[in-house]
Amino acid sequence: MPALSLAPVIYLLAALAEIAGCFAFWAWLRLDKSIFWLIPGCLSLICFAWLLTFINAGFAGRAYAAYGGVYIAASLTWMWLVEGSRPDKWDIAGAVICLGGAAIILFGPRE
């Protein structure tokens, strides 16, 4: 398993994979794109799940909980860069709080 210091990189890659996979479904169902968007979408979601297995958190639930904060920040970045809607101050404040919580969950001292 990669060292805990690699967790932020793994989480960022996982977030990109999850958001891209979910967006493929969004595009198919909400933007009238071809059903073939689901092929890379499903592969991307498989990659997302596989990447999370590299988090050295001891318990899956802890790895997933910490990932939640990264997902929120990455989703807002996606909204800005891909969908063209800039996050407002409340989006940013919420993401910072969630990233702080994720850091506490992931890097907090354990007995």
From TrEMBL:
Coiled-coil regions, chain positions: none
Mode of membrane association: Multi-pass membrane protein
Entry keyword Transmembrane helix: yes
Primary location group: membrane
SUPFAM superfamilies to which the protein is assigned, alphabetical: Multidrug resistance efflux transporter EmrE (SSF103481)
HAMAP family: UPF0060
Protein name: Small multidrug resistance family-3 protein
Naturally occurring in which organism (per UniProt): Aestuariispira insulae
